[in-house]
């Protein structure tokens, strides 16, 4: 809710120096990936990955942990991204034409454009599209690495597992790069937004799941703690006979 509230707050109005006006005189264009498409994109893909993984593994408990982890990531990412946008107030590359739609005016004088366009034009840093795209897709990559056991003894040397796990990053890159092509963000905005989303995804994933080289990296901590009390074999790995359906989920 806080992230949603911050989305509609007015940012800091930064003074624009005459020698930097050229940075904000790019033409106004429609977004290649608008906000509605972005949310459908990040939610459908991430939740579909979780759903398919749990259907294959025939377990519901892991899906709950994954849902808690990714929604936590979305919340943290939204709060940080929107807070920084409001504090920094960096103009977008097309800000001049948001300020003066007819292309005639001096940036030192009051804007004549629509207020909502002007306010939105001061939210360039960091890129929200980039941060959310990378937050979602990096989480999916980490989740797939765990499920496919890419980095432990079972998955080492099997490059097809690695390539499959890395595939969501391609979608995130496409979204992030599109923000510079449609002149809605500077490259620095995209770079920082992508890094922020990656960091938040990494933080939230490993809050719920063990390291990727763990023998049971495909299971969340909640299940590992519970299953550790059950019978295990000599190598310390869980028996295939252990049922995950009967394992309760720890909410706190």
How would you describe the overall organization of this protein?
- This protein is mainly α and 252 residues long.
- Helices cover 56% and strands 0% of the residues.
- It has nine helices and no strands.
- It is elongated.
- The C terminus is likely disordered.
Summarize the model shown:
By secondary structure, the chain is mostly helical. The chain has helices at 2-7, 35-57, 61-88, 95-99, 115-120, 128-147, 159-181, 187-208, 221-227.
Radius of gyration equals 22 Å
Order of helices and strands: HHHHHHHHH
Distance between the termini: 21 Å
Structural class: mainly alpha
β-strand amount: under 5%
For the secondary structure, the number of strands is 0
Task: Note the overall shape.
Answer: elongated
Largest sheet: none
What average pLDDT do the residues reach? 86
Number of helices: 9
**Helicity level, as a percent range?**
55-70%
As residue ranges, the low-confidence spans are 238-252
């Amino acid at each position: 809710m806080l992230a949603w509230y911050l989305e509609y707050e007015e940012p800091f109005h930064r003074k624009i120096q005459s020698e930097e006006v050229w940075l904000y005189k790019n033409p106004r264009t429609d977004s290649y990936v608008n906000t509605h498409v972005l949310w459908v994109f990040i939610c459908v893909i991430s939740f579909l990955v979780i759903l398919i993984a749990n259907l294959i593994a025939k377990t519901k408990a892991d899906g709950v942990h994954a849902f808690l982890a990714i929604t936590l990531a979305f919340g943290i990412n939204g709060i940080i991204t929107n807070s920084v946008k409001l504090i920094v107030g960096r103009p977008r590359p097309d800000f001049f034409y948001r300020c003066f739609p007819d292309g005639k005016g001096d940036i030192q004088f009051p804007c004549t454009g629509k207020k909502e366009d002007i306010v939105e034009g001061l939210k360039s840093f960091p890129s929200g599209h980039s941060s959310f795209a990378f937050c979602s897709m990096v989480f999916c990559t980490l989740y797939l690495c765990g499920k496919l056991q890419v980095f432990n003894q079972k998955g080492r040397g099997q490059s097809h597992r690695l390539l499959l796990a890395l595939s969501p990053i391609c979608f995130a890159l496409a979204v992030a790069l599109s923000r510079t092509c449609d002149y809605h963000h500077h490259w620095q905005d995209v770079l920082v937004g992508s890094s922020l989303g990656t960091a938040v995804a990494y933080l939230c994933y490993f809050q719920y799941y063990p390291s990727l080289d763990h023998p049971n990296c495909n299971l969340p901590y909640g299940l590992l703690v519970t299953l550790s009390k059950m019978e295990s074999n000599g190598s310390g790995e869980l028996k295939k006979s252990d049922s995950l359906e009967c394992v309760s989920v720890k909410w706190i």
